[in-house]
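Final report, section 2: Outcomes. Of the targets proposed, Serine hydroxymethyltransferase is the one most frequently requested by collaborating groups, and we therefore present its record in full.
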Amino acid sequence: MTNPNVELSSAYQTILKVVEQVEPRIAAATRAELTDQRASLKLIASENYASLPVLATMGTWLSDKYAEGTVGHRFYAGCQNIDTVESVAAEHARELFGAEYAYAQPHSGIDANLTAFWAILANKIEGPALTEFGAKTVNDLTEADWATLRKRFGEQKMLGMSLDAGGHLTHGFRPNISGKMFDQRSYGTDPTTQLLDYDQIATAAREFKPLILVAGYSAYPRRINFAKMKEIADEIGAVFMVDMAHFAGLVAGKVFKGEEDPIPYADVVTTTTHKSLRGPRGGLVMAKEEYAPSVDRGCPLVLGGPLSHMMAAKAVALAEARTPAFQEYAQNVADNAKSLAEGLMSRGSKLVTDGTDNHIVLLDVSSFGLTGRQAESALLDAGVVTNRNSVPSDPNGAWYTSGVRLGTPALTSRGFGAAEFDRVAELIVEVLTNTEAAMASTGKPGKAKYTIADGVADRVKAATDELLDAHPLYPGLEL
Ligand SMILES: *Cc1c(COP(=O)(O)O)cnc(C)c1O
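The predicted structure is given below as tokens.
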């Protein structure tokens, strides 16, 4: 095939011209977003650039079909093509990850987790209750049985990684429904090494005895040993769930192998498809066979009708992820993170855990005398897009923070290599050493205000433009 970007160029021009006639502001915003994405040095660890074949697959009439249910068991007639789409997506997911079972319907990572939690509750709480109440299905339960069951659902416990150590809101924290469903406790990291301490997790698990032990993170710059986590879960009879939303691309690309690959160890694995996996915005659940019937209840239990166009795009992205080119990308993501980390540390920066072995670098900006908020804003002024993030036991809390999270997937997709990431490190340090916390109106050092020395932001912006020009986004696509 010739360059798909060139092939799709005229198609996108036509599409935008047609959209323009209906709602010009949307056509304009779509064009502007491409310009902005092309001009931004994107270090947001959860973002990426899906291929144009993936993006193009989303924009079709597959969206027009209702297909509640599962492949071959739909509540609507005429779902033969949707069955094909969903089967192909699930097949690619199973083959790519070596999973026993895959469910391609979740609309996002949060939805995948909610599907997983209820599948686990169905297997561990609802199923045994049916037997106890002498019921074949939930329809046979009396009102009194239901009242008992509802209470049991609400009494379950979850143990996950603490937010300030890099865990995710959906692992039992209050802003997410999981924090209202479950009695949650969390494990942190070792105060000295900032690494997961499996002995400490085992102690917490023995004490708390959760129904679900969750592993997974969105801001932890290290790999997890899933064999050790599984051992802990087995010892206390917990279900072991892994949320690999952030690092699925590294699992798919075989960078995380053996005990670092969650699939053989976890009962249920959830992921997003749009982060390091580089697919469309969406979610996936994979599971051991025994959980399959419960996971299949995701829609309509907690999910709205399947987004068939998105499942189609997931299938295309997963097909791409099965190629050698994707494995090379995944290895580069990890190598580039190392280069970025070393580039920062060799120039005097402090990193959480003193390095990385995944796609994330967590920069502790307190050594620059800044909060995460100040550092994030100053970097943005210089064209470097990051997001502020807590560091373990953060003295500045979750709003101002003391850290900045950096990730390599997006720029790796643009073709940045180790040398470019070393240059990025140099530019980040240049901005931060030339930024000072400014006084707040109270007369004390502020947590949000800052000043950058004259000319630094412009100089760094010119340097980032040069890097971006050398690695164009969607080369060949002209709007
Ligand atoms: C991003 C993320 C999610 C949520 O994904 P959405 O698609 O935004 O709902 C869930 N879990 C983890 C670990 C994540 O990093």
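The radius of gyration is 24 Å.
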